Amino acid sequence: xxxxxxxxxxxxxxxxxxxxxxxxxxxxxxxxxxxxxxxxxxxxxxxxxxxxxxxxxxxxxxxxxxxxxxxxxxxxxxxxxxxxxxxxxxxxxxxxxxxxxxxxxxxxxxxxxxxxxxxxx
Length: 121
What we know:
The chain is an alpha+beta fold.
């Protein structure tokens, strides 16, 4: 099963969900606004991506941080930040049986389809 992590009203998440639906891919949606992002989940993300990749430094949440928060960011503070303000996590973030993808990339999504179909047979 594929898990899509994100925020329901995010345009990139809407685009990703549309792509998954058009390609008849079943998935579960983990909405940060409803389900949150625990420190454990943030740590799981960090097993697959560097914190600098995961933190969306272009978004509103990042711009609202103080300069000291931005410059002192490290793994520990990134975990806390993702747990406290999950909207700072880049989207979409997908997991398919241990294969992780970050960001909207249709070529990666095609690999996701191949990975998913391989387990259906």
